[in-house]
Amino acid sequence: MLRRLSAKAAALVLLVTVIAAAFPYALAPHDPFAQDLARRLRPPAIFPRGLPGYWLGTDQLGRDLLARIILGARVTLLISLSAVAVGAVVGVLAGLAAGFRGGWLDGVVLRLIDVQLAFPLVLLVIAVVSVIGPSLPNLVLIMGISGWPRFARLVRGSVLTVRTLDYIEAAQSIGASSLRVILRHVLPNVLSAIIVYASFEVSRMILLEATLSFLGLGVQPPTPSWGGMIDDGRRYIGITWSLSLSPGVAIAAVIFACNVLGDELRDALDPQVAQD
Q1: Which contiguous run of DSSP H or E holds residue 276?
Q2: Among the listed residues 139, 168, 161, 140, the one whose alpha carbon sits nearest the alpha carbon of residue 95
Q3: Rounded to 5 degrees, what are φ and ψ at 64?
Q4: Could you tell me which residues are beta bridge partners of residue 64?
């Protein structure tokens, strides 16, 4: 159960975002791709010059801003969650192998982690995307690979602690294979740490995707993305502030909600906190 009011509010924000991502066309008040230059760059409906029914105003092509933010939620969550899944799978497998087997394999994984973390993340992703192109599968793959070292380092540290416990040695002493010991005894004990970190990683991937889209290396027009919408609004900030502010607020709200729920998960899955 969510104990804090902030956690309940965060859960509500994420629930609304997921529903918007799942049913964007059913919830959007207008067609997010319909253009009408006669109504371009209008402020939200409650302000002077605002159009009735266009609650967040319109963009430079007269498209409904609210509808595009709702559709952009699908793009943002799809890319971010897929990237976290890719990074988690690669990182968890590498961390389990390195932590449990040790030896030369541990050394190789650690060196790979050090090499990748030595490069600034955003610059590394920008360089790779610039070379291979900003398609949706490429974005998911590149963003996911950029996140595996952190998962691997977290899992490796947890496995180094777990593998010395008595029941692990007992399982090995009766002839259990390494794969069975990892899947049945080691992985369940590090799963809570993986879940908590993944919740924080989602917010980081949302911010990274928005950064790439803002720079023109993310989702390409006319498909709406929150980062790309901020970039569009930047050119018209002197005419209407809502064009950049609205998607920026959406990004901030979802990232804040992910971080708050991550804190709640960490407290719930920590035995010492739970006892208190």
Answers
A1: none
A2: 161
A3: -70, 125
A4: 58
42's torsion region: left (phi>0), alpha (psi -120 to 50) or beta?
Answer: beta
Q: Does residue 69 carry a pLDDT above 70?
A: yes
For the whole prediction, is pTM greater than 0.85? yes
Which residue range is the domain that position 252 belongs to?
5-275
CATH code for the domain of 63: 1.10.3720.10
Q: Which residues contact 182 (CB under 8 A, 6 or more apart)?
A: 96, 100
pLDDT in tens, 178-197: 788 888 878 888 888 898 89
What is the pLDDT, as a whole number, of residue 162? 82
Q: Which two tokens stand for residue 141?
A: 């793959």
**CB-CB neighbours of 75 under 10 Å:** 23
Task: Pull the structure tokens for residue 244.
Answer: 């950049």
Q: By the 8 A CB rule, do 221 and 228 touch?
A: yes
Q: Which amino acid is at 162?
A: V
Find residue 58's DSSP bridge partners. Answer: 64
30: number of Cβ within 10 Å: 16
Closest CA to 246 of 220, 219, 260, 227: 227
User: What does the radius of gyration of the chain's CA atoms come to, in whole angstroms?
Assistant: 22
The secondary structure of 118-143 as a DSSP string is: HS-HHHHHHHHHHHH---HHHHHHHH
Residue 58 backbone phi and psi in degrees, to 5: -130, 160
Task: Report the domain count for the chain.
Answer: 1
